[in-house]
UniProtKB/TrEMBL annotation:
Keywords: Kinase, Membrane, Phosphoprotein, Transferase, Transmembrane, Transmembrane helix, Two-component regulatory system. It is a multi-pass membrane protein. The gene is baeS. Its EC number is 2.7.13.3. This is histidine kinase. The chain crosses the membrane at residues 12-35, 168-186.
């Protein structure tokens, strides 16, 4: 047997509706108890006033007649007194919806010996309300009224039932209104959640273009904004992954095609197997090795798997060592390498990774600077950081290319030819190394017409700036 299981809308509706229902029933019983207690108190006060008034009136009549013979079997006389009391106390009469209790209350008048003079034939209740009738300070009789509790249980039973029916009718109408108001409220509150659920299903199915409309600035609205941000990030990652795979296949295809062509030419006898052909093959293998190494370095830096053994490092000495190793290659390309750096600056970092950073930046300028140009490395020392500027000469890059320099496999020369460019991964690796040292890496136009790459690294806080 399959049971109905409500969804989140049904559960919220049932929760709100059940809360409203509990409140309505609680209020109903509270009003009923308050009404019953108030009604009894009202009857008690009214009966006390009538008893007192009737006692005073009978006391005057007894004083005029001298005995109770005028009252024996004269119920009409008592009712006339009660009627006059009702007209004299209109402000104390029941309001709208209240029964005229004064006319239905049972009264007894007894003499000083307890004999009934006026009243119903039923026995005088021992727990009834009593008022003494006194003349010249002596008790000559009593006026007795039926208990209020007995009155409300018997005489006013119809009125009580009417009030109960009315009260339950109000509860029923209020419950219906609560149901009618709760259902659209539940749907309205959960409509943003439903949109998020539908968007999540599409996202799980691989549709990263899906977006949801934020419902406001509340928690659900912020959740929708976070969802859109997540979807945008996943879409961007998917695009980057596809481009990354396409770039890798392209980068591998070129040297592999050259290797295959060289080997087929040697195999077919078109080209002889000479030291020169072996050197050409080794150059292509070296290109492949460099690409694989760069991919490996990039993947490890992305995952944070590169081992960083940080210690205080004199970064000025490190740059001078890297520049010294590249100076001969720069001279061989007709390029000038100049340095304008502070005397000393200490950072807390990994010596090998920082050397790799500077080697990549020097290699980048070496590959992309025209013959006859130069690379100027300058340093700006502040209280907390060191800014290193690698500024080379033409050719430069446009504004659009500046935003893409740190993307993987991007080379600003506009072609995929490895004769001038590297793997296109060097700057991406540099960015990861700088980020691991809590620094920033940025690119801008060089004053000398080329590219300026700025490395901003924090100084070692435990050492003085010129330590």
């Amino acid at each position: 047997m399959k049971f109905w299981r409500p969804g989140i809308t049904g559960k919220l509706f049932l929760a709100i509706f059940a809360t409203c229902l509990v409140l309505l029933v609680t209020m109903h019983w509270a009003v009923r108890l308050s009404f019953e207690h108030g009604f009894i108190d009202y009857i008690k006060r009214g009966n006390e006033q009538r008893l007192q008034g009737l006692s005073d009136a009978l006391s005057e009549q007894y004083a005029l007649h001298g005995d109770w013979r005028f009252l024996r079997n004269n119920d009409r006389f008592v009712f006339q007194i009660l009627r006059s009391l009702e007209h004299d106390g209109d402000e104390d009469r029941p309001g709208p919806g209240m029964p005229p209790h004064g006319w239905r209350t049972q009264f007894w008048v007894v003499d000083e010996r307890g004999a009934v003079l006026v009243g119903p034939r039923s026995p005088v209740p021992p727990d009834g309300m009593r008022r003494q009738i006194k003349v010249d300070g002596q008790q000559v009789g009593e006026v007795i009224a039926s208990p209020v509790e007995r009155l409300t249980r018997n005489t006013d039973i119809n009125f009580d039932r009417q009030q109960r029916r009315t009260s339950w009718l109000i509860v029923g109408l209020a419950t219906l209104l609560a149901a009618l108001a709760t259902f659209p409220l539940a749907r309205g509150l959960l409509s943003p959640v439903k949109r998020l659920v539908e968007g999540t299903h599409k996202l799980a199915a691989g549709d990263f273009t899906t977006r949801v409309t934020p419902s406001g600035e509340d928690e659900l609205g912020k959740l929708a904004q976070d969802f859109n941000q997540l979807a945008s990030t996943l879409e961007k990652n998917q695009t980057m992954r596809r481009a990354f795979m396409a770039d890798i296949s392209h980068e591998l295809r070129t040297p592999l095609a050259v290797l295959r062509g060289e080997l087929e030419a040697i195999q077919d006898g078109v080209r002889k197997f000479t030291p020169e052909s072996v050197a050409s093959l080794q150059a292509e293998v070296g290109t492949l090795t460099k690409l694989v190494d760069d991919l490996h370095q990039l993947s490890m830096s992305d995952e944070g798997a590169l081992a960083y053994q940080k210690a205080p490092v004199d970064i000025i000495t490190l740059i001078e060592m890297a520049a010294g190793a590249f100076r001969e290659r720069f001279n061989g390309r007709g390029l000038q390498l100049r340095l304008s750096l502070p005397d000393r600056a200490t950072v807390f970092g990994d010596r090998d990774r920082l050397m790799q950073l500077f080697n990549n930046l020097l290699e980048n300028s070496l590959r992309y600077t025209d013959t006859g140009g130069e690379l100027l490395i300058t340093g700006e020392l502040s209280a907390r950081s060191l800014a290193l500027h690698f500024s080379d000469t033409a050719p430069g890059v446009n504004d659009e290319q500046l935003t893409m320099l740190f993307e993987r496999f991007y080379r600003a020369e506009g072609s995929r030819n490895r004769a001038s460019g590297g793997s296109g991964l060097g700057l991406a690796i540099c960015q990861n190394i700088v980020a691991a040292h809590n620094g920033t890496l940025s690119a801008s136009h060089s004053p000398s017409g080329g590219l300026r790459v700025t490395v901003d690294l924090p100084l070692d806080p435990d050492l003085p700036r010129d330590a």
